[in-house]
Amino acid sequence: MNPTEAKNKKRKIIDLDQDTFRILSINAAAKGTNLKTLIENSLKKMAEDLGDSALYAYLLKHDPDGQVYLNEEQAAEFEKEMGL
Question: Where are the domains of the chain?
């Protein structure tokens, strides 16, 4: 990791109970990675999904001039995919 990447990262110590640690460690091994990387990637994905959901919610609220960009079926499918 270069110095710029290190500056853009935050550290957080977390406590996991033994069962959670064991289950996640096994899951990480099954995916060919380690627990730290599994947790980091899971949290990154979660943040991206939350960002997408927030953006979509904003666009729904501020729909310019009532223009429809998706038909109802497409919109419903997208909302389901985004967890809205």
Answer: 15-82
> Where do the DSSP E strands lie in the chain?
none
In the Cβ-directed half-sphere of 29, how many Cα atoms lie within 13 Å?
Answer: 6
Q: What is the pLDDT of residues 22-55, one digit of tens each?
A: 999 999 999 999 999 999 999 999 988 888 888 8
For residue 6, the surrounding DSSP H or E stretch is: helix 3-7
Question: What type of residue is 37?
Answer: T
**What whole-number distance in Å separates Cα of residue 30 and Cα of residue 32?**
5
Q: How far is CA 38 from CA 8, 10, 14, 80, in A?
A: 19, 16, 14, 25
C-alpha to C-alpha distance for 45 and 15, rounded to whole angstroms: 21
pTM: 0.57
Nearest to 28 by CA among 16, 71, 54, 82: 16
